[in-house]
Write a structure and sequence with these properties.
six-stranded mixed beta sheet, alpha/beta, Rossmann fold, four-stranded antiparallel beta sheet, 26% strand, globular
Length: 232
Amino acid sequence: MIATRNLVHRYGDAAAVDGVSLSIPDGEFVLLAGPNGSGKSTLVRHFNGLLDPDRGEVLVDGTPVGDDLVAARTRVGMVFQNPRDGFVAPLVGADVAFGPENLGLSREEIERRVDAALAAVNMAGRRDERVDDLSGGERERVAIAGALAMEPDHLVLDEPFTGLDAPARESVVEQLRGLRDSGTGVVLVTHDLRDALALADRVVALADGQVAVDAPPAEARDELPELGVRLP
């Protein structure tokens, strides 16, 4: 479980996240919505210690993130808005293997995880391809595979549809559907719900750094347009 308690994060005098308390159980598919500047990306970067709170706390499985960063980053995988921000190796297989290698796992276990992660995003057999030669949608899938190779309890994706054409968006949605069905918790950060609302168990919407909506999709729909969130 991911939990925040009265979380505050400031940039200068402005509170990007202002007193947010949330609990996200294992296996839940959460859409984190809101207009640009509402605090979505800042919030999720606290889930595995990429940012430190100015006030409040974040816990993963009951342990404060700052007390065990390795555990938090193993249990909460992060895929950034621009996949290039997370790539560390020129070849697909080497990039996906990077996280498990840093855990000190055996070569056999690393290979197993890489194969399983690439298969999960329909990239099996493409370990030796160059990341730079892939399409935008394929890069997004490799980024997801890199996070999945850590075998996280939760996968957090920050605006994964940005810049993708329709076929690529459909492919990423299909991977997210498979993750949901397999029991992996997903937190999907987006301001555009067209491709993802049907997947969600819950919608959390932010406005000015605070939780404005926290409800099942059917109940959240009526309130979202007022916050600048695009519905299907």
